[in-house]
């Protein structure tokens, strides 16, 4: 580049030099040039801007110094001195430069990098930097060229200088602080570019600065010390190389003892690691591992910050997902609700951005949290999964592969409907309506979503969805009943009925307590606003369409909005109710759309394969869907087009499809006979054919369908009954199953017409010819259970024969002919013979299991009818209950399920709940857990029923769960495994069974129920076993079970010893009350042992006179028998006290001095034990005695005997066993004595 020509001075062009300075030219030596320039520098330094004469005088010299000779002089000193002169020249002539703009020699010098090494010593530029005036050096008015020149200047100063002072560093770094950064963007950009250019030079200075602040704690070294973390973040964004030496210092700070300091470092590193293009994690693995360790920090905010960071990290660095997964797993179980919540948010946010960012394990954490104990976490997990499902499965935004990856979400969300919380149920309903099958879609699209969703659901999800529709339909029915009550005249009975309906509705809304109040208020509004009632009636009408429902909901909400409030909980609660009862998915148009989809699947023109299901699955699932909807929306099916499609399904070969179609006709076809004659004429022969030659399920549905929709059902059923009854042939069991099913259901539905003909069939064919004969030999493979298709036709026919007997009896509902007694004896014999009624040993074990299950289920089914329950004997009840302990796992499982379903619907008497106590002996843990859940559910249902129904107070004996205890004790006393009441293992089993039931019953002490249970058991000990009252061994076993039950009760609750005013009622069928009975609180016998133990009865009895005894006990009776010693506690009036002499006892009334009972004399025996040092006086220590009394165990059993210290000559008796049982409970209750033998 060429320099511009030197400017000419004004006037004659002569250059004037300061006094004493000779002319400076290229003719002289460099040393001389330097000498003369020094004098010029001094002259210019002494000048100021006001010296106009001197400025004009030396203008020529100023122009001369800008010549090429000086600027390109090879001598460094020359260039330095010239630079100093030029700096003063700019100062003196400012604001007017002595050079023209066209030939701005200053910027020419800058561009050519001539003056850069010199300017580092210029006092003007250094003054601006030292005073942090870097922002003043640049402004918006400067163009890019000026900024570039400045950057070249400053970077050269730093790189070629001797070092960077702290002041200079602060001047640069202060522009990176957020507050300054936002004020002057140009200064920030200048500092950023400068740091990038000088990274190699300035990195050491930066490291030294941070080392002093972070490690040494010298905050006084700079005013920027408090902004170190902001500076680190900015420097890392500019160039990570600037912090090469700083990162190890951050690792040190991560391990600080100060939680707030760790939090600040974690926040910083979260931004550094999570930055989009950051490679810090791969470049500095120790720091990354140290940072991951903070996920387990003891400080909650630190863990929370780590979890929040994970979201950005997953989005920006998918390669780090593997490292984060294990730590997120731990935090998903964090005790802090907020952290678990943020784990869900982190994973879901990453998944919504790109499903590939989250692996299956991370999604599994969200899946687990749908069952979190906190509602906020559960809600976030469920809503997050719903959003992922809608985005990737419903809208297919990422293709089929992504949709397949999260295909489990739909099932999981619906499974949550099984949870007890009403909030969970409501959220599932909301998710279903907004995310799984969005109600905002048009009808065809909406039904397509539902059709294929139902086809892809697993069994449990289908059941949950069916239950959801069932609950919504039930709630609609409750609202309809409430509106019907509004149409009746006002009365007390009407108000009571309304209150009951409102309470039932409130149970189906969140926060039942507030819901009751709001529903009462809503009911008041309904009674005052007729238009509102009309809208609500239209909403729940069977003919209401989805569009009408939206209008009704909007109108009702609008009416309740006034007066407007920021928060209206009453309106929110009403919205919950309206959302549950509004038919947003199903109406007549929707059913028609579903039927069209079904027809397309049948014709093979549907998109079944594209949706991931086979045509057969789509057809079967579609029929099942229509069947379920036929229960909840039967009116929507009433159209010729729908029924024509269903008739086509009846003709298909798929048995399940035809069965579902028949059931749909049964549920919806009440108007077929009067309005659709053509459909009727086509349907009747098909139903007859299915009842005679269809599958058993088809036959059942066909018979019920005929009975439900036709007026001349007697004629129709007779046309089926007569040919089937004549064609029965036990030699061809394959053709016997369907007729037996049809005959059984016909006799149950029309008992007046067919009960008598059935009696002869039962007597001559069912019992004698079928059940009492074994025509074929079973498979002797030793299996206890086999698949349905492997069961022999003869056994299947026998099972259906047993069911026929039950249906026949249920239809008659009386026992006038004593047929029920005969049937019960037959079923009992089958159970006693383990399923082989003929005992010819022709039947295989698996077939015997089937028959045992059928017999037990039959007795349980008959017990649901009151007239038959009365004639079931205790022995038959016990045989039925013992099926739950069957050797075959499948028998136990199916029987327990049938038992639970009948009990939870309150169909079975309370005594059958006692059967679940036997499940404690089940060897399979899952079966025990299932039985416990069944107990909890049944007890909850019964308690809730008693609360909701005032009339239930009159039937407490049959409803109150506590009344199951007598039945349980009697059942356990007659357990076939309980043969030796003195053996430890058998008593241990009894204790486990009692504990299994009582633990659930005694979860809460409602209405002093614990004392009621104790009193009930004590009352049982006053009775005899009604099943065998004269059998001493049976009564002994009954009393021993009572003893163990009392131990369980006493160790479960300390409140059981309170007074109970209510007198328990014992079932007379099981217990026979004696004339004279003794209330036994505890009874134990002790076996003879070697050695001798002396009891001081004086100390033992004097204690009973103490004042503190009276509030707890009244007096006790000591009975000494020939071979053993038993301690029995009795509760009497505290004014009576026992006086005892050796060999003689008297009961004395202290107040009146009258003898209450005759003197009783017993032979006193010395009980022999292992020789002990000295004698032991029982209860000599008053403190010890008081402890026993307070624990309610004033007896020898209260001592924690160490049986291992004794060497019994004989076999351990029941006393030792019971003492061992006492020890097993003493760990959890204060039963340990202060002194042991």
Account of the 3D structure:
Among the domains are: 118 residues, no CATH class; 119 residues; 159 residues; 167 residues, no CATH class. The N terminus and C terminus are likely disordered. The chain has 58 helices and 7 strands. The protein starts with 29 loop residues before the first helix and ends in an 11-residue tail after the last helix. It has a 3-stranded antiparallel β-sheet. A two-stranded antiparallel ribbon has the order 1-2. It has a two-stranded antiparallel sheet with strand order 3-4. The chain is mainly alpha-helical. The radius of gyration is 48 Å and the shape is elongated.
Distance between the termini: 114 Å
Low-pLDDT residue spans = 1-12, 101-137, 1076-1237
Number of strands: 7
Strand content: under 5%
- The average pLDDT is 79
Which class of secondary structure composition applies to the elements?
Answer: mainly alpha
Give the biggest sheet.
Answer: 3 strands, antiparallel
Assembly context of the chains:
single chain
What percent of residues adopt helix (DSSP H or I)?
Answer: 55-70%
Q: What is the tally of helical segments?
A: 58
* Radius of gyration from the alpha-carbon trace, in angstroms: 48 Å
Strand order of the largest sheet: 5-6-7
Outline: elongated
GO biological process, one term: mitotic sister chromatid cohesion
Subcellular location: Nucleus
Main location: nucleus
Pfam family, one: PDS5
């Amino acid at each position: 580049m060429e320099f511009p020509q030197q400017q000419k001075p004004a006037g004659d062009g002569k250059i004037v030099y300061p006094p004493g300075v000779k002319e400076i030219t290229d003719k002289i030596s460099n040393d001389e040039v330097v000498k003369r320039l020094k004098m010029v520098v001094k002259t210019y330094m002494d000048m100021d801007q006001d010296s106009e004469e001197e400025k004009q005088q030396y203008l020529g010299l100023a122009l001369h110094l800008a010549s090429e000779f000086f600027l390109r002089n090879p001598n460094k000193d020359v260039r330095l001195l010239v630079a100093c002169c030029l700096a003063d020249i700019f100062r003196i002539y400012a604001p007017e430069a002595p050079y023209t703009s066209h030939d701005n020699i200053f910027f020419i010098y800058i561009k050519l990098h001539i003056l850069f090494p010199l300017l580092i010593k210029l006092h003007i530029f250094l003054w601006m930097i030292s005073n942090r005036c870097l922002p003043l050096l640049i402004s918006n008015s400067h163009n890019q060229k000026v900024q570039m020149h400045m950057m070249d200047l400053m970077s050269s100063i730093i790189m070629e200088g001797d070092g960077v002072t702290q002041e200079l560093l602060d001047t640069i770094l202060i522009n990176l602080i957020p507050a300054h950064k936002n004020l002057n963007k140009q200064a920030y950009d200048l500092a950023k570019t400068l740091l990038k250019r000088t990274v190699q030079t300035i990195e050491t200075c930066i490291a030294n600065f941070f080392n002093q602040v972070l490690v040494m704690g010298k905050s006084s070294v700079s005013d920027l010390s408090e902004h170190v973390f902001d500076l680190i973040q900015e420097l890392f964004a500019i160039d990570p190389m600037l912090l090469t030496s700083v990162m190890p210092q951050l690792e040190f700070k991560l391990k600080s003892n100060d939680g707030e300091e760790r939090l600040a470092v974690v926040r910083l590193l979260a931004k550094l690691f999570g930055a989009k293009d950051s490679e810090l994690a791969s470049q500095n693995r120790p720091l990354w591992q140290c940072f991951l360790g903070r996920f387990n920090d003891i400080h909650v905010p630190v863990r929370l910050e780590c979890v929040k960071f994970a979201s950005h990290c997953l989005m920006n660095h998918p390669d780090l997902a593997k490292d984060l997964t294990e730590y997120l797993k731990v935090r998903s179980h964090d005790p802090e609700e907020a952290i678990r919540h943020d784990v869900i948010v982190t994973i879901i946010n990453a998944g919504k951005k790109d499903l590939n960012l989250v692996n299956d394990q991370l999604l599994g954490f969200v899946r687990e949290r749908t069952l979190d104990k906190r509602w906020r976490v559960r809600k976030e997990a469920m809503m997050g999964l719903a959003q992922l499902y809608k985005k990737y499965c419903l809208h297919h935004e990422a293709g089929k592969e992504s949709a397949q990856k999260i295909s489990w979400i739909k099932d999981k969300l619906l499974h949550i409907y099984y949870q007890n919380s009403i909030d969970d149920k409501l959220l599932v309903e909301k998710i279903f309506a907004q995310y799984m099958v969005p109600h905002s879609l048009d009808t065809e699209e909406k039904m397509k979503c539902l059709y294929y969703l139902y086809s892809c659901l697993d069994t449990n999800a289908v059941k949950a969805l069916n239950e959801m529709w069932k609950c919504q339909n039930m709630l609609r029915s409750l609202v309809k009943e409430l509106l019907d009550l509004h149409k009746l005249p006002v009365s007390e009975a009407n108000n009571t009925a309304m209150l009951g309906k409102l309470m039932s509705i409130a149970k189906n809304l969140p926060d039942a307590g507030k819901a009751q109040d709001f529903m009462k208020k809503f009911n008041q509004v309904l009674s005052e606003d007729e238009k509102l009632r009309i809208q609500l009636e239209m909403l729940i009408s069977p003919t209401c369409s989805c569009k009408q429902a939206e209008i009704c909901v909007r109108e009702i909400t609008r009416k309740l909005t006034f007066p407007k409030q920021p928060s209206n909980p009453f309106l929110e609660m009403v919205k919950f109710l309206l959302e549950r009862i509004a038919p947003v998915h199903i109406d007549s148009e929707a059913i028609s759309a579903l039927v069209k989809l079904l027809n397309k699947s049948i014709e093979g023109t549907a998109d079944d394969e594209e949706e991931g299901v086979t045509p057969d699955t789509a057809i079967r699932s579609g029929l099942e869907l229509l069947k379920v909807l036929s229960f909840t929306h039967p009116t929507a099916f009433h159209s010729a087009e729908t029924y024509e499609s269903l008739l086509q399904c009846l003709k298909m070969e798929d048995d399940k499809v035809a069965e579902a179609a028949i059931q749909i006709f049964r549920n919806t076809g009440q108007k077929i006979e009067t309005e659709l004659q053509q459909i009727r004429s086509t349907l009747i022969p098909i139903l007859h054919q299915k009842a005679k030659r269809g599958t058993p399920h088809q036959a059942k549905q066909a018979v019920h369908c005929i009975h439900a929709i036709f007026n001349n059902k007697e004629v129709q059923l007779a046309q089926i009954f007569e040919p089937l009854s004549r064609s029965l042939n036990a030699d061809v069991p394959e053709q016997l199953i369907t007729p037996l099913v049809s005959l059984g259901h016909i006799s149950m539905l029309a008992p007046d017409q067919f009960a008598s003909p059935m009696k002869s069939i039962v007597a001559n064919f069912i019992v004698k010819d079928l059940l009492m004969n074994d025509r074929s030999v079973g498979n002797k493979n030793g299996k206890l259970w086999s698949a349905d298709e492997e069961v022999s036709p003869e056994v299947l026919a026998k099972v259906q024969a047993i069911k026929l007997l039950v249906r026949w009896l249920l239809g008659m509902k009386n026992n006038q002919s004593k047929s029920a007694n005969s049937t019960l004896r037959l079923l009992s014999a089958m159970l006693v013979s383990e399923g082989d009624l003929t005992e010819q040993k022709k039947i295989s074990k698996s077939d015997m299991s089937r028959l045992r299950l059928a017999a037990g289920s039959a007795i349980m089914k008959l017990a649901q009818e009151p007239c038959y329950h009365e004639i079931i004997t205790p022995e038959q009840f016990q045989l039925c209950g013992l099926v739950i302990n069957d050797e075959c796992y499948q028998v136990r499982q199916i029987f327990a399920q049938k038992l639970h379903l009948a009990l939870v619907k309150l169909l079975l008497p309370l005594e059958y709940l006692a059967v679940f106590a036997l499940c404690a002996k089940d060897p399979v843990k899952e079966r025990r857990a299932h039985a416990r859940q069944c107990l909890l559910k049944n007890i909850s249902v019964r308690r809730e029923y008693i609360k909701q129904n005032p009339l239930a107070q009159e039937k407490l004996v049959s409803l109150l769960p506590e009344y199951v205890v007598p039945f349980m004790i009697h059942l356990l006393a007659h357990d076939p495994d309980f043969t030796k009441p003195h053996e430890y293992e058998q008593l241990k089993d009894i204790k486990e069974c009692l504990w299994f039931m009582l633990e659930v019953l005694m979860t809460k002490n409602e209405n002093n129920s614990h004392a009621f249970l104790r009193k009930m058991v004590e009352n049982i000990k006053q009775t005899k076993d009604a099943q065998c009252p004269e059998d001493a061994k049976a009564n002994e076993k009954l009393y021993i079970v009572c003893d163990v039950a009392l131990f369980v009760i006493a160790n479960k609750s300390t409140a059981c010893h309170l007074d109970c005013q209510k007198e328990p009622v014992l079932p007379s069928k099981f217990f026979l009350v004696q004339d004279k009975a003794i209330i036994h609180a505890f009874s134990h016998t002790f076996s003879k042992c070697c050695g001798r133990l002396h009891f001081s009865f004086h100390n033992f009895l004097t204690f009973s006179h103490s004042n503190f005894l009276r509030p707890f006990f009244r007096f006790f009776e000591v009975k000494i028998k020939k071979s053993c010693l038993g301690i029995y506690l009795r509760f009497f009036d505290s004014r009576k006290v026992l006086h005892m002499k050796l060999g003689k006892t008297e009961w004395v009334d202290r107040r009146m001095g009258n003898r209450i009972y005759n003197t009783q004399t017993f032979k006193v025996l010395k009980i022999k034990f292992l020789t002990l040092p000295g004698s032991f006086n029982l209860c000599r220590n008053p403190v010890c005695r008081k402890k026993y009394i307070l624990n309610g165990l004033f007896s020898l059993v209260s001592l924690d005997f160490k049986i291992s210290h004794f060497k019994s000559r004989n076999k351990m008796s029941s006393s030792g066993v019971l003492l061992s049982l006492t020890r097993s409970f003493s760990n959890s209750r204060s039963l340990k004595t202060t002194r042991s033998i």
